[in-house]
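Standup notes
- DV: blocked on the single-chain target, sequence here:
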Amino acid sequence: MKHRNWIGIAALAPLALAPLRAQQAPPAPPPPRPVIAKVAPPPPTPPPGYQNALDMINSGQYRAALAQLKALRASRAYGDATLYWKAYAQSKLDQKGAALANLKRLRLQYPISSWQPDAAALELELAQANRELQASARALRAAPMIARFRAPDGGAVSGADELKLLAINGLMQNDPKKALPLLEQVVSGPDSLTVKRHALFVLAQSRDPNAVAAIERLAGNAASPELQQEAIRDLAITGHADDLWAVYQQNPPLDAKREIIQSLAISGNVTRLIQLAQTEKNPELQMDAVRALGISSSPAAERAVAGLYAGAANRNLSQAVIEAMFVHGDAAGLVTLARRETDPTLKQAIVQRLSLMHSPAATAYLMEILSH
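- DV (later): unblocked, structure below
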């Protein structure tokens, strides 16, 4: 009997302890973890010359801005922005193919870039312009070729000239080899300027070496300055920079030489431009060559320009060098010139350019000036 009572008491023990457990306080929650503030990393520093290029774009200097952007050091953080602004500058310079190529690179290389919406808008704008251009080209091909040409005063082509234009077109389509020497004779002959310009245009479309040789001869002929300059431009557009240099050696008139310098810049012939900048005796032509080097993205052009600085001994040349170095974004080189320049006017010109350049070297030098 006593054994059964102990069993019952043991069975009732958990029930008796239940109220005591209920009165005990629940375990305290763990202390909250300290909140660590996340500090955003500083924005990446743009590559030297980037802001300078944007300033040029804002002021409409698209060619200089494009040269500056091409010369920038590779920057992953700013690679997408650089591609966009290259395309934007090229679109303003009517280089639609190059602009679309850069926009495609931006789309493929930086698929999640914040510049994608702007790039898509620019690409759409270029595509629309391209469609309009193609429509104009189709309409132009459908029209008679003589409709593309007008007399120099903007009036209609005369009946006699119209027949000659038709004859030129027909000869080029039927027997180009016989047509080439005749076209050169037309350009050099007594025909109207309208007919001569058309003959020169047709010559420039031919890939025949004889046509190139004919254009070179016309580029060296000063009898008609207007046709001479057109022939020089045709040589540049068709990529015959060596022929341009040969014409320059023939000592053509000043305007023709200036046209050749511009054409050498268009064709990217930095070697000849450096040669002219270093050896040309005519001060105006020498400065033209320096300015042409200023828009080149070639490192060789940048080094050559810096070496041409003459200080007060040749102020005009020195001013041209300062401007070219500014276009290159060569802040370090300008600081070097400013440190050694003693002429107040030239030093002021250098500092003025440095004040427009968003470069660590420029900023440090400007602060140095203020500290003295």
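- Follow-up: The mean pLDDT is 77.
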